[in-house]
Amino acid sequence: MFDAAIQWANTLIWDYLLIYVLLGAGAYFTIRTRFIQFRLFGHFWSALAHSRKGAGGGISGFQAFCIGLASRVGTGNIAGVAVALTLGGPGAIFWMWMVALVGMATAFIEATLAQLFKMPQPDGTFRGGPAYYIERGLGSRLWGSIFAVLLIFTFGLTFNAVQANTIADTLSSAHGVPPLVTAIGLVILAAPVLFGGMRAIARVAEWLLPVMALAYIALALVIVGLHIQRVPEVFSLIVRSAFGFNQAAAGAFGGIAAALLNGVKRGLFSNEAGMGSAPNAAATATVGHPAAQGFIQSLGVFVDTIIICSATAFIILVSNVYDPARPAEIAGATLTQASVAAWFGNFGMMFMTLLIFLFAFSSILGNYAYADGNLTYLGATAPIVQVFKVIVLLAVTGGCLGELPTVWGLADVAMGLMALVNLGAILLLGRWAFGALADYEQALPDGTPLFNSKANPHLPARIGTGVWRRG
Fold this sequence. Notes:
Layout: H1 2-32, H2 36-39, H3 41-49, H4 61-72, H5 79-88, H6 91-116, E1 119-120, E2 126-127, H7 130-138, H8 141-175, H9 179-195, H10 198-226, H11 231-242, H12 255-271, H13 278-282, H14 290-317, H15 332-377, H16 382-401, H17 405-443
Antiparallel strand pairs: 1-2
Helix pairs in contact: 1-6, 1-12, 1-17, 3-14, 4-10, 4-14, 4-15, 5-12, 5-15, 6-11, 6-12, 6-14, 6-17, 7-8, 7-17, 8-9, 8-15, 8-16, 8-17, 9-15, 9-16, 10-14, 10-15, 15-16
């Protein structure tokens, strides 16, 4: 009965409520920012290129981008896309692209708000995110605390167990590695990074994310390059299936509805735009203007979905392993691994196993970083934070050794509730982000914009700390 209740709650939140709220918010923010994700797309990359160093030794905008990408880019980019293809057909990829393009505007809003309302820490870094802008922008400590608790449970504990479980299952099924060995290895790798603090996580994410993302993209380019003549056919298949024009490739459960639902859900799960998770990473950056980090974090949605998830889709669709008429024969990460192994044999299988490990490991680090900021918000002392790190390592161990379907179901409910709280907040606080954007664009012709909240005509009111006051 409990499991049935959890399933009912998940269906209600995700299938009938959250998808439409997320898409509606994304469309609203896209219009209010005058299609910022298209209009300033080139400038997004410029902002990222100039964000490699944090002022005063703080966490740089690029490092914060990598922390956010570490959580976004996980096993879902490999297994989740394959599941979307299995259930929704190739058309699901089209709708995955659409939700990412709309979600880029939402990601800009929440990241900019996280920067505007961030708080300085004794170690010279910053913490922020939805809990902080809910309290400081909306005056509600209660809802800020509710959000923080939901995020700590979802990302700090359960999702880390899920990522660890994926690593253990992959190593066990493909190479016969005992789950206990995987658990010990993960703890040995993760512990020094977690106990090294936010700067250590930022340093590891800064080099790990580009390496693994580029390696995976390179693999996809090689496979697609070997079948370059099939690329137009694959694009046509994706678009025709998205609108129900190719029923044989519309997925096991049929048609445009299956393609739309599974593509949208895959996109939302993967890029996390509007979920309230990535703003926790955005707030840690030391930058000259809040909007600059909004641009950078918006790119995270693009890289995660348009680039990395698309790489998985094309690897599968140009292979001879996936059959649109019988999509359920091979599913999940196994489908992606089999598609690579079809062309590279055992080397391809080993390479994919390594990438799955790195994708999941990076998510563990990114997920913990989110939880860390919310523990700080709740007033956790240093000893409590250290104890929580041990609990996270235990969750990783438990994820390797066991099956936790009920806990995972609870995590999905908590994440859905977390997203609804965040979406309500950013819709109410959107004018602050619009003001920051107007300030940035007004100053842009004169050089690199520097933000000053003191008597700023673009903001609804003054911000209550000296983080953004100059002079």
